[in-house]
């Protein structure tokens, strides 16, 4: 088995997507198990983005006969390390591929004070993250059709965000999770709708992709509640919403989602090292 860096090429982005699809499977596919074209384009674009911004944190495992069998994408933002993706195809699982990839990805975070990743419910992955020194915080998700009639209006102003809000968002990031997202905001702005609050009570922001909350951070629960309410009310009538990766510290988000008629379920772990669960905060699968 060979470990090599992920390159910023269409071929490597396609290989990472193929490994990811084979590893996790997904109900969000077209007949025949294929990803919708817009999802393929976005995923591959993000792979190439990380290959440019974090070339020393992105690794692919190749078997001489089978080709690409595993991938890890890790990032560093200020003093925070994050694992965006760890995937191994089923035929190569249990053979040390994931362990080798995780070690290489964690080596990229040497010197970082904090670590963050969103883990699946897979018991092998959970065991690996715990052995790597992460605390595992069971996570919940909210999902379903939003009933706007059940939601109280936001208790203050919520604005459409623009690139001019990057300094504000970086400041909120540092306060909530100990490190700014920095250049990630440019990528997120290209993929998602952004809501921002900024008043005498504090500040915060929320990215929403269709009906999925991609990332939310605020300086208080009150502002986080306002942002999540506005984001859910923006979902088109009859549209579905998803609010993932909620630890027990995010009860404010449960209150909003349940009020909106969403259903609550279990959803893997938020895994942390050198930090407490950031709050009020909803991490991104990809950008953490």
Automatic annotation (TrEMBL):
SUPFAM superfamilies for the chain: Acyl-CoA N-acyltransferases (Nat)
Pfam family name, one: Acetyltransf_7
Domain N-acetyltransferase: 1-152
Record PROSITE patterns: GNAT
Alphabetized InterPro entries for the sequence: Acyl_CoA_acyltransferase, GNAT_dom
The name this protein goes by in its record: GNAT family N-acetyltransferase
Organism expressing this protein natively: Streptantibioticus rubrisoli
């Amino acid at each position: 088995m060979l470990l090599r860096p992920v390159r910023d090429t269409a071929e490597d982005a396609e290989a990472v997507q193929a490994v990811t699809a084979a590893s996790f499977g997904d109900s969000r596919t077209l007949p025949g198990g294929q990803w919708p074209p817009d999802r393929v384009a976005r995923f591959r674009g993000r792979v190439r983005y990380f290959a440019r911004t974090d070339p020393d944190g992105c690794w692919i495992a190749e078997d001489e006969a089978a080709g690409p069998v595993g991938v890890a994408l890790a990032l560093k933002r200020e003093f925070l390390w994050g694992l965006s993706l760890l995937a191994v195809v089923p035929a190569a699982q249990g053979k040390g591929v994931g362990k080798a990839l995780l070690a290489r990805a964690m080596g990229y975070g040497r010197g970082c004070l904090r670590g963050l990743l969103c883990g699946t419910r897979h018991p092998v992955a959970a065991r690996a993250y715990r052995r790597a020194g992460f605390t595992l915080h069971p996570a919940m998700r909210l999902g379903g059709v939003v009933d706007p009639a059940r939601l109280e209006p936001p208790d203050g102003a919520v604005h459409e965000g623009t690139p001019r809000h990057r300094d504000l968002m970086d400041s909120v990031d540092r306060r909530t999770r100990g490190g700014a997202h920095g250049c990630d905001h440019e990528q997120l702005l290209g993929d998602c709708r952004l809501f921002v609050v900024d008043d005498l009570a504090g500040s915060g922001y929320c990215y929403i992709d269709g009906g999925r909350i991609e990332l939310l951070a605020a300086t208080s629960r009150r502002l986080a509640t306002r942002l999540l309410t506005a984001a859910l009310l923006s979902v088109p009538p009859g549209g579905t919403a998803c609010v993932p990766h909620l630890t027990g510290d995010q009860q404010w988000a449960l209150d909003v989602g349940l009020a909106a008629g969403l259903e609550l379920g279990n959803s893997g772990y938020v895994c942390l090292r050198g930090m407490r669960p950031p709050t009020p905060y909803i991490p991104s699968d990809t950008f953490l």
